[in-house]
Amino acid sequence: MPGSDPQVAALVDELNASLAGYNKAIADATALLEGAKKAVEDVGGMAAIREDIERIDAIANQFGAFEAILQQRPADAAALLGEHAPALKEIEAFESKYAEFFKQNNADTAQIRRELQSARGTLDGVTQLKTQYREWVIDRASRQMEEAAMIIERGVAERRPAFFGENGGVTQQLRMSDDLVKLAVAIDAGSAMPLVEQLGALKAKGKQAGDALKAEIIAANLLPSDAYRGSDADALKAEAKRLWLERNPGDEVVHVAIPTPQWKRETKWTWFNDAFYFTDRSDLQAAVVFKAKSETGEPELHWYPVDITKDHQNGDALKFSPWVKEPLDQLTVHRRLLPDKLKH
User: Fold this and answer.
1) How many CB atoms sit inside 10 A of residue 290's CB?
2) Mean pLDDT confidence for 328-343
3) For position 278, what pLDDT does the model report?
4) What phi and psi, each to the nearest 5 degrees, are found at residue 222?
5) pLDDT of residue 38
6) Which of 266, 250, 253 is nearest to 306 (CA)?
7) Which of 245, 284, 286 is CA-nearest to residue 262?
8) In angstroms, rounded to a whole number, what is the distance separating the alpha carbons of residues 140 and 135?
9) Which residue in 1, 274, 340, 343 has a CA-CA distance of 20 to 30 Å to 73?
């Protein structure tokens, strides 16, 4: 019979072996596909992966230009450093979440693996920059405060009240000093403590100098500028005034301005209550001017900011936040002016 032919039998065996190999390959491929499918399901599905990729990318992007921010915008750099440790914690949580998923080593894992590696590199780079720039920031803050001290002394010696105004040299120098000291603290609080003490003494010196020239400073102060020209300017001013009077019903408001020329939009992830939250908002600031009295009962005008926020995640909803009134002896002197400034 043909089946007894050795060649036929060998061919049958070969075919059976090939079929077995093919079936094993199918089984192995099926197992890989099932494993990949389960791995995707275990991390919440592809939609969750895409959402995580977007979140990881957004968090890391906040620190992408950190070195330039550190050099040019110390206040923003200090704020970012406040988010650095939480950002690292968040990335570590993602690394843990996807540890099993990465064992699949397929196309599905490639993008999020790259995003996590990139984010980790960016955040580790910030850690290195903190060490690299620590002494530079300390030195810059120290020199900034020395310059501020000289401006204060000059303002008193030359009787220059404008130096102590809202946009005067003393005010600006103290603001820059404060920003740099905050950055130094954010980098290394321990090594920045002498700067904190130095800044405290400098502010006291500035206040003392300002008090010496208080009458002249108040006389030189002008109304807040009205720089905003948006079509909603009148409505924004009216609402700022309404809310101010709601909180301070005894005040007589005589002027409302919006000194900031345009909305400032900021889109970022913010750490709050042990989690990152996405925010997309724009900010503007109004100034409400009202009648007041000096320490001796003489008529003055005082003004306070009202912060205005536009929430782009909530249909551009507006929120108005009037500042809380301070005792007269604590009110910044550049927010006090004489009533005749209303005529100018």
Assistant:
1) 21
2) 90
3) 83
4) -115, 165
5) 53
6) 253
7) 284
8) 8
9) 274
Main-chain dihedrals φ then ψ at residue 286, nearest 5 degrees = -100, 165
Which amino acid is present at 289? V
- pLDDT reading at 33 higher than 50: no
Residues 319/311, Cβ–Cβ less than 8 Å: yes
> Closest Cα to residue 237, out of 258, 251, 223, 264?
258
Of 312, 322, 306, nearest to 265 by C-alpha is 312
Phi, psi at residue 250, to the nearest 5°?
A: -85, -5
The whole-angstrom separation of Cα 264 and Cα 291 is 30
Mean pLDDT, residues 292-296 taken together: 94
Q: Where are the alpha helices (DSSP H) in 43-73?
A: 46-61, 66-72
Radius of gyration of the chain (CA): 32
What sign does the CA torsion over 243, 245, 246, 247 have? positive
DSSP-assigned beta bridge partners for residue 281: 266, 311
Query: Any idea of the CA torsion for 152, 156, 160, 164, to the nearest 10 degrees?
Result: 40
Q: What is the pLDDT of residues 108-122, one digit of tens each?
A: 678 888 888 999 999
Residues 6+ apart with CB under 8 A from 245: 251, 253
CB atoms within 10 A of CB 6: 7
- Return the minimum-mean-pLDDT range out of 92-96, 134-138, 282-286: 92-96
- Bridge partners (DSSP) listed for residue 293: 299
E-strand ranges in the chain read 253-257, 264-272, 275-293, 299-311, 317-322, 336-337
Record the pTM.
0.72
Look-up of token digits 């330039």: 68
Cα 94 to chain centroid distance, Å, stands at 22
Do strands 299-311 and 317-322 pair parallel, antiparallel, or not at all (unpaired)?
antiparallel
Q: Which residues, at least 6 apart from 90, have a Cβ–Cβ distance to it below 8 Å?
A: 59, 276
Candidates 205, 74, 153, 76; CA nearest to 197 is: 205
